Amino acid sequence: MRKIISGLLILGCVLNANEAKTSKERIDAMRSMEKSMATIQKGFLYNDIRIVEEGVKALKERSIHLEPPLRGDEILLNKKETYKYKFTKKQAYRMNIYADDLQRDFYNGEKKQAMYAYTKILKQCMSCHARIRKW
Known about the structure:
By secondary structure, the chain is mostly helical.
């Protein structure tokens, strides 16, 4: 009986430690993407393609690693089958598509279209925060 209780306690501690680690990583990812969006916006204000490209590159590198916050039971189960995981991956994919559009439009001199793509990226961010983080 003690072995079972000890095993459950250890499992609980491991899951909580894993959650704390992934929570810090998630916060770092959000901060990094926020800085990328600010860099893109700065590129618009200075009309500098290099700054926009830098922001787009950083955003794309970070967004492909997005994962939603998980509860303990989702860690034990197949997390790739959960709604939150699929939705987050879909949002990250869309962000990358819009980031490519933004960069292409800005490079071609279509600033209004590039700003529209920027707005679409921001909408993906807000959509994910509204559904996954319950804002």
